[in-house]
Amino acid sequence: MTTTADGILQTGHIGLNVTDLDRSVPFYTRVFGLRVQTEGEDQGRRWAFLERDGRLVLTLWQRSHTSFAATSAGLHHLSFQAASLDEVRAAEAVLRDLGAEILHGGVVPHGENTASGGIFFTDPDGIRLEIYAPDGADTAAAPYGAAPTCGFF
Fold first, then answer.
1. SS3 132
2. Which band of pLDDT confidence, cut at 50, 70 and 90, is reported for residue 2?
3. Which of 61, 70, 50 is nearest to 19 (CA)?
4. Which CATH class is domain 76-153?
5. With 32 labelled, which of 38, 52, 101, 114 sits at a CA distance of 20 to 30 A?
6. What residues does each domain of the chain span?
7. Residue 147 has what DSSP assignment?
8. Domain spanning 11-65: CATH 3.40.50.12780
9. pLDDT digits (tens, 9 = 90+) for 88-141
10. Given CA atoms 60, 125, 150, 137 in this order, what sign does their dihedral have?
11. DSSP class per residue in 69-128
12. How far apart are CA 87 and CA 132, in angstroms?
């Protein structure tokens, strides 16, 4: 019997709860190069759909009253792959310009002797995010040795 799991599954889009859509939309559009596909409000409920190259990537829902809690069950972090380390460094410059919290001081590898790596940071609500490239990050020291960098930030 064929099930959905037997076929190829891809992430469709990611939905995030935020506290302030007016703050989150500019952050995500600037850092990730996304464009507002649509946004709306109905009975005080606000949302924005963000796309890139015609593909829905992220939906933001103004539903939260408190910042992200890393100690709660649910999302650990959201990771985006860039084509190159130069793209990661360009995003890092935007993040620094925005005053975002960047962990580990900048670009770091995913682990000791690992070529892949990137930047680890938080959005305005404290949601943990990552932008990485598949190679080129092995010139920096790994923050946690052999332990996965993306697991402990």
1. strand
2. low
3. 61
4. alpha beta
5. 114
6. 11-65, 76-153
7. S
8. no
9. 999 999 999 999 999 999 999 999 989 999 999 999 999 999 999 999 999 888
10. positive
11. -TTSSS---EEEE-SSHHHHHHHHHHHHHHT--EEEEEEEESSTT-S-EEEEEE-TT--E
12. 9
**For residue 95, what are its two tokens?**
């993040």
* Residue 81, pLDDT above cutoff 80: yes
pLDDT at 4 over 80: no
Q: Residue 11 and residue 21: Cα distance in Å, rounded?
A: 23
CA distance 127 to 17: 10
HSE value, Cβ hemisphere, 13 Å, CA-based, for 49:
10
Closest CA to 28 of 12, 13, 9, 41: 13
Amino acid at 84: S
**Helices 85-98, 21-32: inter-axial angle, 10-degree rounding:** 150
